[in-house]
Amino acid sequence: MAYTFKRDETFARDLDDMDILFSFRERFHIPQHQGAPAIYFCGNSLGLQPKSAHFLFKKELEDWAGLGVEGHFEATNPWFYYANQFSESLAKIIGCLPEEVMAMNTLTVNLHFLLLSFYKPDAKRYKIIMEAGAFPSDQYAIETQVKMHGLNPDEAIIELKPKPGAYCLEDDDILSAIEAAGDELACVLMGGVNYYTGQLYDMAAITKKTHQAGALAGFDLAHATGNVPLSLHKWSVDFACICSYKYLNSGPGGVGALYVHERWGNDQSVFRLAGWWGNEEATRFEMKKGFIPAKGAAGWQISNAPVFNMVGLKASLDIMDNTSMEALRAKSRKMTAYLEYLLRDLDHLSFTIITPTDPDKRGAQLSLLFHKDGKKVFNALTKAGVIADWREPDVIRIAPVPLYNTYSEVYRFYQILKALS
Ligand SMILES: Cc1ncc(COP(=O)(O)O)c(C=O)c1O
Q: Would you say the pTM of this structure is higher than 0.85?
């Protein structure tokens, strides 16, 4: 959709007045800067605290104090089932069946567990495709998984690099690389949205091409979850790891989630490292020898639910349940387009927006690569009460989040940049 924007404060305020999601901002604590709300554009790194979190944490503390072990079944939100309550909401956010997703562990831990199940190299099929310059944790995870199988990372990992002079990958280049790897390809593991450039990949096309090559497709959805609509089940994605502390606002180090397509989740023969909590619920407490995996993603659980690391997710999903990814995406597209429109007016600063201009190929985030004075600009923004994030060597990432950011904040941010000499 083409928008008509204006560079004035009243226009930004009018956009806020027309914003059907505006009232959601009230449900979050906004960090303060010198006694006034900061402009928080860092929800792609750590989402804000839902105000309800305080009450929910207190409730769990009270239940623990008052009930002890009885809280497993008698607490207001019984701890035995604590993780199960998130699957319906998460399924709506990532587009899958509720049985295909389960909150557990943390992001990179889930990535490792998934690779243990789905990266099964043999003499012929042993290669794994990923983006060059993926988030370091993903690089380390894949490298060590490859080594664990006794393989040489330089031979087994195919890193996809943008064309010379480009910042982002082209869809066709990704698909051609998958085709070229052919029957040597075991697995593709890409981000859904690249953490550095903000590029949104065509997960449906990547999955289809990967399957045509006879391999499995997995995604690290750290920057995609709650940011862009996903249809993992429909796209037939094999596996994915999900982060809850960015666009889902579950709090620092908040519990991750793991998705497996039902064709794997219902196949008990798929290898996974087991623990008692992944055993089918009915016999979990029989304490017998012989692991019987629960159906679906639940069968990848290992330990009992870390309740206090899940309370933030409860607070956040209660909020997400009151809106939809479609509504969030509509506002997000518009707000990021407004940000881009304003940034393009700033020719006194030397930067390139390396995030794709096509709204279908990005989420909320814009990444500004500074050709000079990047750190100086970043420090000036911080001093002026803008919380953004700096990524070495030269990028400032800005993410207006539709749940709690406003068009007026985007406009004020532009004014702050405009005033810099
Ligand atoms: C793409 C990506 N992968 C992995 C991680 C690491 O997450 P964790 O520390 O929760 O494992 C992050 C964190 O920001 C990330 O953005």
A: yes
Give the residues of the chain that fall short of pLDDT 50.
Answer: none
Q: Which atom of ligand 1 is nearest the CA belonging to 246?
A: 14
Dump pLDDT digits (tens) for 232-291: 999 999 999 999 999 999 999 999 999 999 999 999 999 999 999 999 999 988 888 999
Q: How far is CA 90 from CA 84, 112, 245, 254, 365, in A?
A: 10, 21, 13, 14, 21
Burial of 215 (0-12, 13-18, 19+ CB in 10 A): buried
CB 47 within 8 A of CB 247: yes
Q: What is the pLDDT at residue 272?
A: 96
Ligand 1 pocket: which of 130, 137, 143 to mutate (most atoms <8 Å of CB)?
137
Protein residue with least CA distance to atom 8, ligand 1: 107
**Which residues, in sequence order, are CB contacts of 378 under 8 Å at separation 6+?**
388, 390, 396
E strand spans, 196-345: 216-220, 239-242, 257-260
Give 183-199 pLDDT, tens digit per residue. 999 999 999 999 999 99
**Which atom of ligand 1 lies at the shortest distance from residue 245's CA?**
10
Q: What's the pLDDT at 330?
A: 98
Distance, in Å, from the CA atom of 37 to the CA atom of 16, rounded to the nearest integer, reads: 16
Residue whose CA lies nearest to ligand 1 atom number 4? 137
- Secondary structure (H, E, C), 67-126: HHHHHHHHCCCCHHHHHHHHHHHHHHHHCCCHHHEEECCCHHHHHHHHHHHHCCCCCCCC
List residues near ligand 1 (CB under 6 A).
Answer: 106-108, 135, 137-138, 191, 195, 220, 222-223
Scan for tokens 């080594």, then name that residue.
147
